[in-house]
Automatic annotation (TrEMBL):
<feature type="binding site">
    <location>
        <begin position="297"/>
        <end position="298"/>
    </location>
    <ligand>
        <name>ATP</name>
    </ligand>
</feature>
<feature type="binding site">
    <location>
        <position position="294"/>
    </location>
    <ligand>
        <name>K(+)</name>
    </ligand>
</feature>
<dbReference type="Pfam" id="PF00294">
    <property type="entry name" value="PfkB"/>
</dbReference>
<keyword id="KW-0547">Nucleotide-binding</keyword>
<feature type="binding site">
    <location>
        <position position="333"/>
    </location>
    <ligand>
        <name>K(+)</name>
    </ligand>
</feature>
<keyword id="KW-0630">Potassium</keyword>
<keyword id="KW-0963">Cytoplasm</keyword>
<dbReference type="InterPro" id="IPR011611">
    <property type="entry name" value="PfkB_dom"/>
</dbReference>
<comment type="function">
    <text>Catalyzes the phosphorylation of ribose at O-5 in a reaction requiring ATP and magnesium. The resulting D-ribose-5-phosphate can then be used either for sythesis of nucleotides, histidine, and tryptophan, or as a component of the pentose phosphate pathway.</text>
</comment>
<feature type="binding site">
    <location>
        <position position="181"/>
    </location>
    <ligand>
        <name>substrate</name>
    </ligand>
</feature>
<feature type="binding site">
    <location>
        <position position="328"/>
    </location>
    <ligand>
        <name>K(+)</name>
    </ligand>
</feature>
<dbReference type="InterPro" id="IPR002173">
    <property type="entry name" value="Carboh/pur_kinase_PfkB_CS"/>
</dbReference>
<feature type="binding site">
    <location>
        <begin position="265"/>
        <end position="270"/>
    </location>
    <ligand>
        <name>ATP</name>
    </ligand>
</feature>
<dbReference type="GO" id="GO:0004747">
    <property type="term" value="F:ribokinase activity"/>
</dbReference>
<feature type="binding site">
    <location>
        <begin position="50"/>
        <end position="52"/>
    </location>
    <ligand>
        <name>substrate</name>
    </ligand>
</feature>
<comment type="subunit">
    <text>Homodimer.</text>
</comment>
<keyword id="KW-0460">Magnesium</keyword>
Length: 352
């Protein structure tokens, strides 16, 4: 069915470990003699799922100009889906909560996520909206532009968590991860439900949407890039001139006020992070080659979430995110470029 189906076996077993660990917490008297009862790193992703259409070209067109592309392809996309695949390939038991259309695109999303070992039991089907889509252009330098049509993603509401937030029935120490591509009400409900269960909430606020302040304050960490950090600070400026010192200052201002902790990604310059009492810069490993930067940020976020769920502290997790983001730029596409993450996990670079 999938050329990569064999890859999913270990990750699917990890998902069963996570579910089994939850059962053991609820029923401590019972014995589970299966070897799979060892608790695994668990990541629950609430996010967008799209069909990505790529066009590769030598340079971006000017307004009103037509240029010829060099190649085109279709693949899985959406920040939520990308980050779920990254976390799963690294070794975290991963489940996905989202919404697609009752169309071929929705079936493709479900099958592809499942093929990578992601639990899709929380993926809903809208009877009226189409599956979300994105049009992506990538130039010869690996830079990209992205236009998203939200489709069914825009219909996701707080009820996507299920009755009594049953989708969060996971062990203590698990991680919830969301982005800015779903309605703010759904993201806020997710954050509050995680907090009520004592679970950590990670928010990749991309794009920046108007999240209720009490829910945003729960983010630990809040992950943004340079332009998103400027938007949160209500500051004008060119993100390209936003240096490491600027990022450290922005992270310091946001941490402990807007969110519990903050990570600002800086592309090839790595990332900076801040908690209530300290700030630091995490350089990124220099990739051997840059082919396509699409999805590198999602690889960073997925790896960071998997590391935190595996017991790493934030400084270590940011370093592992930087390693994953750097590895992901060496091949075309988003999840198609994530094979390198499996190698990082096997080498002990990402997950403890």
């Amino acid at each position: 069915m999938f050329a990569y189906q064999h890859r999913a076996t270990r990750v699917d077993n990890a998902r069963r470990q996570c579910r089994m660990a939850a059962l053991m917490e609820r029923n401590p008297v019972e014995r589970f003699d299966d070897e799979r009862t060892t608790a695994a790193a668990c990541v629950v992703v609430l996010g967008s799922a799209n069909i990505d259409s790529y066009v590769y070209l030598d340079r971006f067109p000017q307004p009103g100009e037509t240029v010829f592309g060099t190649a085109g392809r279709r693949g899985l996309g959406g920040k939520g889906a990308n980050q779920a695949v990254a976390a799963a390939l690294i070794g975290a038991a991963t489940s996905f909560l989202g919404q697609v259309g009752a169309d071929d695109g929705g079936a493709f999303v479900r099958d592809t996520l499942a093929g990578y070992g992601v639990d899709t039991s929380g993926l809903r089907v809208s009877p009226t909206a189409v599956t979300g889509s994105a049009q992506i252009t990538v130039d010869a330098a690996g830079e990209n532009t992205i236009v998203v049509v939200s489709g069914a993603n825009a219909e996701a509401g707080p009820d996507i968590l299920g009755p009594e937030s049953a989708a969060l029935d996971v062990p203590a120490g698990s991680i919830g991860l969301a982005q800015g591509e779903l309605p703010a009400e759904a993201v806020a409900a997710f954050a509050r439900a995680l907090a009520a269960r004592g679970l950590r909430f990670i928010l990749n606020l991309a794009p920046v949407i108007d999240i209720a302040p009490d829910a945003l304050r729960l983010a630990d960490p809040l992950i943004v890039n340079e332009s998103e950090a400027l938007a949160l600070l209500a500051r004008d400026g060119d993100p390209r001139s936003f240096g490491t010192a600027d990022a450290l200052d922005a992270a310091r201002r946001l941490a402990g006020t807007v969110a519990e902790s903050v990570v600002i990604t800086l592309g090839a310059d790595g990332a900076v992070a801040a908690t209530g009492d300290r700030q630091w810069h995490q350089p990124a490993p220099v990739p051997a080659v840059v082919v396509d930067t699409t999805g590198a940020g999602d690889a960073f976020v997925g790896a960071l979430a998997a590391a935190l769920a595996g017991g790493a502290d934030l400084e270590t997790a940011v370093g592992r995110g930087a390693a994953a983001g750097s590895a992901a730029v060496a091949a075309l596409g988003t999840v198609d470029s994530y094979d390198a993450l499996r190698a990082l996990a096997q080498d002990g670079v990402v997950v403890p």
